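WARN  no MSA supplied for this record, continuing single-sequence
INFO  ligand: flavin-adenine dinucleotide
INFO  echoing inputs
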Amino acid sequence: MSVSAPPAGVERDFPLARLTTVRTGGPADFFARPASSEELGSLLDWAARAGVAVGVMGSGSNLLVADAGFRGLVLKLEGELATIEREDDRLRCGGGARLPQASARAAREGLTGLEFGVNIPGTVGGAIRMNANAYGGDLSRVLEWAEIVSAAGCERRAPSELGFAYRRSALTPGEVVARASFRLAPADPEAVKSTLADMRARRREAQPSGIKTFGSTFKNPDDPRAGGRTAGLLLDAAGCRGLEVGGARFSTKHANFVENTGDATTASVLALMAEGRRRVRDRFGVELEAEVQLLGDAGGEPEQALS
Ligand SMILES: Cc1cc2nc3c(=O)[nH]c(=O)nc-3n(C[C@H](O)[C@H](O)[C@H](O)COP(=O)(O)OP(=O)(O)OC[C@H]3O[C@@H](n4cnc5c(N)ncnc54)[C@H](O)[C@@H]3O)c2cc1C
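INFO  complex generated
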């Protein structure tokens, strides 16, 4: 395929592993950091005309990059597309803004509603794409609109138009969340800050910290054969806690977390996930569905484990 020259600032063969929290995977053929909606629009326009696939990287906290990398353009939002601003009782955020920073900012401003984001180490765009949630919070309850930029242009969508379901939205890979508005409610800043402190403490108790991981590997199943158990409990009962394949290990503190103990590759993570799924299927008849997203073609059987 011949590709017309990319716009200025686009880098070639850019290593992606260090932009993910699990630190595995290969390079992107093309990589750019758009800092405005206009820049983002021209990059998407170039990619569409050149027939180049597009992937978006937020904080890489729910992303597995194929070891062979990504044959396309990876975008990481910066500048104007990563700001957090208050407007009355609203917080207006760039898609590249970090969600824990938005939660902390809301607390300082005396606004309540975004507390659930304090422990989700992703961006606002990644959270909308994944319909991220924690502690019974609800993104769609506070999200007023998301501005979606694609090769077709820019449009604002209400939560009802984003196709939210458990850990998913209807956004497609070429649709980028450039900005979002959260409608919050006034509250005592000290009370909101103290809720954030409680949530951080609860998280430290329940989950491993300081490890290279993408958080929950599989979604919690709604299959009645799971008997209401979470993916972590099923993996644990199926003997996966501490199980290791090629430097990738199901955490001993939380069996649904895969950690890179040092020299894991994406292939080893996928092989470990395939083994976890097999054990849970054999033991309980429950088919676990991956929560982590795959960028690039990992080839072969393990990739089909992702959905
Ligand atoms: C320690 C740890 C704890 C976690 N706890 C939670 C939790 O409690 N609850 C929870 O829901 N998740 C949790 N996660 C998972 C993860 O943080 C969330 O899914 C988060 O929303 C991903 O955001 P991100 O910016 O890192 O997205 P990435 O991992 O970079 O990308 C994930 C997906 O979103 C897409 N994407 C990213 N940015 C955009 C954008 N601007 N526009 C369109 N698509 C985009 C990517 O292309 C990809 O498909 C945890 C992860 C870790 C490592």
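Residues 266-284 form the longest helix (19 residues).
INFO  checksum written, moving to next record
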